[in-house]
Fold this protein.
Amino acid sequence: MRPIIKAYAFGLIVALGSSATAQEQLTIMPQTLSNPDNEPAPVHPVPHDRQVKWNETEFYAFFHYGMNTFTNKEWGYGNEPETQYAPLGKPDPRQWLEAVKAAGMKGGIAVVKHHDGFCLWPTETTEHSIKNCGNTNGQVNIPEAFADAARDLDMKYGFYISPWDRNSAYYGDGTNRYVKDVFLRQCYELTAYGTDQFEMWFDGANGGDGYYGGANTTRQIDADTYYDIPNLRDSVHITMPDCVMWGVGGEARWIGNEAGWAGETNWCFGSGTSRGMECRRVRRQSHHCRMVLALQRIREISQRTLEILHGDRGTQRHAHSQLPAKQIRSAARLRREPPERIRRTASKPS
């Protein structure tokens, strides 16, 4: 036994030596994986980075202050005299933001022009602005003060600027003068108060009756073409790369109601402005899904039970032993009642 053991040991040593020599001849090649975490490819459409940042804001305020504060109207007609805007004290946007920050909000949107067309900054595009207000308190430049306060408080900020202008004589007059000389210029003027704005709110209310420079008429426009949206979008994003366009521009939208709640699932794949029906449609779709599931369950029960009703007695006894009596009664009722009756009662307990 001893010589055999020695021979085996010698063979093992030779084999190990040969393996070591082979390993020394191998060259280790470094490899860089393009997707080391094996992340799945995105399913398009996917949000832009600015939309992700906007969504991460989660909780922010909306400040509707302006001419309507002094007329006690939700929508001004556009014929309000500039002197009617006459604050008793100086407006303090910092106080507004401090209050909502204490409530846990991360930013705010200030209305600086509503549908009445009155501008809360000394714009060069119209005389319907704080330049001609009723007192010195009203001459506070709201967007400038709001932006300065937000940056000082480390909060996000943006402005609501109404595309619809019931004061302007050029709005909806059959030319592009309002968009070119008024609306786009107003948006550009507001970039002077900060290129770090996170949102510009362009409300979806467009066209209707108004003052329109004294015409006192009704004007309708096609929002998809009238506002030169490609040019508007490029102008906003070039100067403010993280700014999301709400409403006109289609980067964020209305949820379908003014109550502040949305459906459990509310994908942003539509305009969201279908005359207040958005969330009700979400609820109907959710209810429809429950109805479909109920009907599917009834059909399953029906298929199993019909075999009982049309089978031999041995099969009936065997199947009855597997199905609860309640399910058998449901399936039997399905055979007796018309489909319309079943659809109306499917969600009700048997």
Remarks:
- The chain has a mean pLDDT of 80.
- The first strand starts at residue 61 and ends at 63.
